[in-house]
Amino acid sequence: MTTNDAKRGAGPAQVAGPARAAGTDASGPHSNGVAPRLPGILRSGWNNIGFELRGYFRTPDAVFFTFLFPLVMLGIFGVAFQTSGEVGARADGTGGVTMAAYYLPGMAAAGLLLIGVQNLATDIARERSDGWLRRLGGTPLSPVSYFIGKIGMILVTALAQLLLLIAFAVVAFQVELPTEPELWGRLAWLFGLGIIAMALLGVALSALPRSSRSATAVILPVVLLLQFISGVYLQFSMLPEWLQQVASLFPLKWLAQGMRSVFLPDHFQLQELGESWDLGLVALNLAAWLAVGLALSLLTFRWQRRS
C-alpha cells in the first residue's frame, strides 16, 4: 500500500541523492577516508524527510488506506449511527455523547497504528524486496539518516492526520472538544509516545514479509485484528473479558484507552476493564512496547534480507 513510486527504477544518481545531501562522495561508504560526521548524518536525514514525504503523497493508495481511512471510517460510523441517539449517558440522562464523538478517540488511535505500523512496515518491506535498500546500503547514507527520514515522514503525516480528523469531527458532526489544557497536554504525550512506539514496531514487523507481494498479506491481518479487539470499531466493554485481557497485551488497546480519556467525559472510565483510565499503565505499556520495538528493530533490520 505504501511503496513510494518515486523510488522505483531509481538510477544510481537518485540513490545517492541523500548521500550527496550530506556532503559526502557517493562512490562508497568510506571513499574519502572519513566516516560521516554527526552534522552530515543529521543534514542527510533532514533532506530525506522531504524525499519520503514527496514519495508518500505521490502514492494514492498509501494516502487513502493510511491517511484518509480513519476519516472515512469516522464518517461512515457517524452517519450510520446518527439516529441512534447518545451513548454513555448517566442514570439521569446527562453526560451522553454522539456516536461520532464516541468513535473519535478510537479512530485517532487507529490512525497512529495505520501510519506507524502498516505504512512503515509495508514500505520498508517493499523497498527491501525491490532492491532499493540494497542500493542504499552501497552509498554513504547512514542507517541513522535513513530512519530520520522515515520517522520524520511518519511524525508529519500522523500529526496532519490527527489534526484533520479532529477538524472533520468538529465540522461534520459538531463534536465538542475538550477545553482543559491538561487534556491537550495528555493528548500531546499520548501522540508522541504512541507514534514512536508504532513506528518502531513497524520497522520490526517489516522483517517478516519475504517479498513485496506478501507484505500486505502479512501485515494487514495483524493491523485489522488489533483494531477489532482494541476498542476501535467495537465498544471495548462489549467484548468478552478474556478477549479484553488478550487485547491488553498489545499497545493499541492502551493507546485507544488513553485517547478516550482525552475526548470522552470522565464517567466513561467506568466502562474500562479496571473502571479507570489507568493513565500510568497506559504510559507504562506504550513505553514498554517502544522498548520492544527498538530492540527488535536493532536486531532485525538489514539493508537486504538474509538468504
TrEMBL record:
Report the subcellular localization. Answer: Membrane
- Keywords from the UniProt entry: Antibiotic resistance, Membrane, Transmembrane, Transmembrane helix
Q: Which InterPro entries match?
A: ABC-2_transporter, ABC2_TM, ABC2_TM_bact-type, ABC_2_transport
Q: How does it sit in the membrane?
A: Multi-pass membrane protein
Stored Pfam families: ABC2_membrane_3
Please give the residue ranges the record annotates as the region Disordered.
1-34
Q: What is this protein called?
A: ABC transporter permease
TM region(s), chain numbering: 62-81, 101-121, 151-175, 187-208, 215-236, 279-301
Domain ABC transmembrane type-2 residue range list: 61-307
